[in-house]
Specification:
By secondary structure, the chain is mainly α. It has a single domain (8-208, 231-418), classed as MFS general substrate transporter like domains (Growth Hormone, Chain: A, Up-down Bundle), CATH 1.20.1250.20. The chain contains 21 helices and no strands. This is Putative proline/betaine transporter.
């Protein structure tokens, strides 16, 4: 295996924008418990959360369109151009949420503004995942790609941690009345400003050599990033959907839904539930590069299989136990157990998908199937969970998560190993790392 150095400039440049993207994406869910009442009439608290969760899910259903449009854009115009565009869209959506009027002022128009903002976020994130995954993978030499691409989930989790950290600060510096009234707008203003800064940083990134090599090829220029070109790799596209299914449901269960579950079901104070999530996610973030580096040594499939088995077998007892925790310690231990299990998926899923496709359709091949899987399973996870709870059969959701993991496990057991895949013609011909421009 190659011992070439990791191109940290490219890794950091790609990751910091991803962090802001996912800060904005997750902060909606993190602060939903405070702003739900601002956009819907008085009623059952769970019903209000169902409404805000439904709007959260709307963003996921925009992701396939974003995956198609921005994945195509990344394959035709470059990874850097796509990364810059996605963060621009995210900044605009965060600003819309920050200024959205309340139900008391304009009725349901405020909720309509939320929907528009979530549609923009879905469009952006649908392309961001693929552009970031493709950029991090292509910008890194063979033998280090698992490690480097794991920073996608490091940055995703860091974005969520910043959001949760800000929530903890606001919880301890503002009254509940102020938070419910206007304080929840602060994190969206922060997100909009941070995205504007990242826009400048991403404009200074260098394009990957794998894309530049493809750009110089006269053959197949017209078909780059098209659905027709993707259909030539139908098996790989279906593979991305199937291997994502279990991972995305488990990820959103133990991240965005966890704080609500600990508060709404276990009965922990919102402040305690938030602190549990923050501490567990911080440790989870630190584990990603370790697992990514391990995959560079032993392959991607062993980690995926470990996740599949752990999630299939462990979800029901873990979630049942979490529903009965009474304090910080028990909640942290059980939450961290679930996050350790899904590390086998999160640390390497980006690189696995990128390694399945050739350069001319790599971004679209990662973006569209992944976005479809997230729209069907990841984006609806929170809504499905709350629906089961509202129906009085909350444990049904735990079995649903286990079933999704079982389907993905079958894929992990039968798919090919991708660790040694060549990502460019240069690698195919020389088996040497493609040099990274700095």
């Amino acid at each position: 295996m190659s011992k070439a150095r990791v191109p940290w400039k490219a890794v950091v440049g790609g990751s910091i924008g991803n962090m802001v993207e996912w800060y904005d994406w997750f902060v909606y869910s993190s602060f939903a418990v405070y702003f739900a009442a601002s956009f819907f009439p008085e009623g059952n608290d769970t019903a209000k959360l169902l409404n805000t969760a439904a709007i959260f899910a709307v963003g996921f259903f925009m992701r396939p369109l974003g995956g198609w449009l921005l994945g195509r854009y990344a394959d035709r115009k470059g990874r850097k151009a796509a990364l810059t565009l996605t963060v621009t869209l995210m900044s605009a959506s965060a600003l819309l949420i920050a200024i959205a009027p309340t139900y008391e002022a304009v009725g349901y128009f405020g909720a309509a503004v939320l929907v528009v903002a979530r549609l923009l976020q879905g469009l952006s994130v649908g392309g961001e995942y693929a552009a970031s995954a493709t950029y991090l993978t292509e910008a890194t030499p063979p033998g280090r790609r698992g490690f480097a691409s794991s920073f996608q989930y490091v940055s995703m989790t860091a974005g969520q941690l910043v959001g949760l950290g800000l929530q903890i600060v606001l919880q301890n510096s503002m009254s509940k009345e102020a938070l419910n009234s206007w304080g929840w707008r602060i994190p969206f203003i922060v997100g909009a400003l941070a995205a504007a800064v990242v826009f400048y940083l991403r404009r200074n990134l260098m394009e990957t050599d794998a894309y530049d090599e493809e750009e110089q090829q006269e053959e197949g220029q017209a078909g780059r990033g098209t659905i027709k070109a993707l259909l030539a790799h139908k098996k790989e596209a279906l593979l991305v959907i199937a291997l994502t299914m279990g991972g995305t449901v488990a990820y959103y269960t133990y991240t965005t839904y966890l704080t609500k579950y600990l508060s709404n079901t276990a009965g922990l104070a919102k402040e305690t539930a938030t602190l549990v999530s923050f501490c567990a996610l911080f440790i989870f973030m630190c584990l990603q590069p370790l697992a990514g580096a391990l995959s560079d040594r032993i392959g991607r499939r062993p980690l995926l299989i470990t996740f599949g088995i752990g999630s299939m077998v462990g979800t029901v007892p873990l979630m049942t136990a979490l529903g009965g925790v009474t304090g910080f310690g028990g909640g942290l231990l059980l939450s961290l157990t679930g996050l350790i299990i899904i590390t086998g998926y999160t640390s390497i899923n980006a690189v696995v998908k990128a390694e399945l496709f050739p350069t001319n359709v790599r971004a679209l091949g990662v973006a569209l199937p992944y976005a479809i899987a997230n729209a069907l399973f990841g984006g609806t996870a929170e809504y499905v969970a709350l629906w089961f709870k509202d129906s009085g059969i909350e444990s049904g959701f735990f079995w649903y998560v286990s079933g999704c993991a079982a389907v993905s496990l079958l894929v992990y057991l039968t798919m090919r190993e991708t660790r040694d895949a060549a990502l460019s013609r240069a690698e195919q011909g020389t088996h040497e790392p493609v040099p990274i421009r700095t």
